[in-house]
Amino acid sequence: MPVYAQTYEEAAADAQNAEINYNRSVPLEVKGNKIVKQGTDEMVVLRGVNVPSMDWGMAEHLFESMTMVYDSWGANLIRLPINPKYWKSGSIWDEKNLTKEQYQKYIDDMVKAAQARGKYIILDCHRYVMPQQDDLDMWKELAVKYGNNSAVLFGLLNEPHDIKPVGVEKPTTVEQWDVWYNGGQIIVGGEEVTAIGHQQLLNEIRKQGANNICIAGGLNWAFDISGFADGYNERPNGYRLIDTAEGHGVMYDSHAYPVKGAKTAWDTIIGPVRRVAPVIIGEWGWDSSDKNISGGDCTSDIWMNQIMNWMDDTDNQYDGIPVNWTAWNLHMSSSPKMLYSWDYKTTAYNGTHIKNRLLSYNTAPEKLDGVYSTDFSTDDVFRSYTAPSGKASIKYSDESENVAITPEAANWYATLNFPFDWDLNGIQTITMDISAATAGSVNIGLYGSDIEVWTKAVDVNTDVQTVTIGINELVKQGNPHTDGKLDAALSGIYFGAATADTGSITIDNVKNCKTRYTCLYCQYISS
């Protein structure tokens, strides 16, 4: 029976001595029609959401979405759409750009975020029709970089569709499956291109020594996975891919939107594959316009609950074995939207259903002892420093090895933004050394991915003092979002104007202590 710490001081002492594990994701493999922990029969069901923007370029709100999905909603999976062109050369979007190095670092940061939390991430090659040479080139590099990383699954191609072999005017479905599997010359956008077969793609990944679970989508914009069923086209295993003995297996991906139908279509097209191989519904969701598709005789409540219950197999039709899933999507620029705005207020017709279903599994992140800290001897710990123009400036000094904030307006504020691989679930205190040019008062605390700010007013002066703030001392500020919950979806440490002008503020030796046993409780308020 575990011995529970009675006081914060006892818990903090345990946390101070704890070693932080940055690679907590349990290795997985395919076993029959399940995903299991490697070497066991223990089934793992992967559920989460798509977090786009890397597929078109700029990685906006990537950190905030990650913390919201993993740390607040309890998801254990993110599907991260990525683009081979940007992987190779960087991205340009709306007159902004990411270099190749910046683009790849975002992907690396997301992988580290999953590892540090014991979660999983699908690197989804977000392309269409059929894989081509640039897709294969990216997969070879990804296989070397993330091969056998226990957190990473490989999504081979987003949505195959309308595969047209050269010289075939109206290809049959079987002809399309043949090319899907074997590759060949096809017509895309009126031009002849060489399609890489999915079996070749898998083979090339395995040749790099990468045995990660791979994910293959079907025809018809990845909805139709019927070709993977036993006996399809008189093939014993249909068009399922043949893995190596060392490979951890293949999962099959269907994208099920209302335009494709409902339970009858799922049972017909997806159901037979559910019985022989693991399945993921990699994209699904209800758009605000979908009521028109069904002629007005269906609602989001009906369709969303039907598909979620079908995926969870609540009526035991598939022997109680759920499918894995990632809902679409956690971004404001693609539909069906899960969000109304970047304060993570969920859409009633889509996002709220998905969020509530994730929360219903009661898969709250595990709390572990640990202290995340930096003495600022290097400038590569915090993700970034932020101060709005005209309100404040913030700067790291490699000479002094600290961070200085200079207020420029009465309502100034600035933030130190947490890195991707700090799992702050269970945070109890923030500690730092702080001084100011003149005596005064500063609001110090935490801000969340949902734009909430929680602070305590701290007196500062010209002497360096060590300040420790417990989360039980923090009070929610008058910011737009009003759910009144300081949860684990934390973005960084907040500094702002309190009651007096302090001049420039210097911060050093920051420590964030988290404990497995909650001793200090936040002052939650009702909405």
Give the rounded overall mean pLDDT: 93
Which spans have pLDDT < 50 for at least 5 consecutive residues? none
Give the count of helical stretches: 11
Could you estimate the helical fraction of the residues in percent? Answer: 10-25%
Strand content: 25-35%
What is the quaternary state of this protein? single chain
Query: What does the radius of gyration come to?
Result: 25 Å
Strands ordered across the widest β-sheet:
3-4-7-8-11-12-13-14
Structural class: alpha/beta
> Major sheet, described briefly?
8 strands, parallel, barrel
Q: What distance separates the N and C termini?
A: 38 Å
Q: What's the overall geometry?
A: elongated
Number of strands: 26
Description:
The chain is of the alpha/beta class and 527 residues long. Helices cover 22% and strands 28% of the residues. The strands form six sheets. An eight-stranded parallel β-barrel has the order 3-4-7-8-11-12-13-14. Strands 15, 17, 18, 20, 23 and 26 form a six-stranded antiparallel beta sheet that branches. A six-stranded antiparallel beta sheet has the order 16-19-25-21-22-24. Helix 2 packs parallel to helix 4 and helix 5 (133-146) runs parallel beside helix 7. The model has no long low-confidence stretch (mean pLDDT 93).
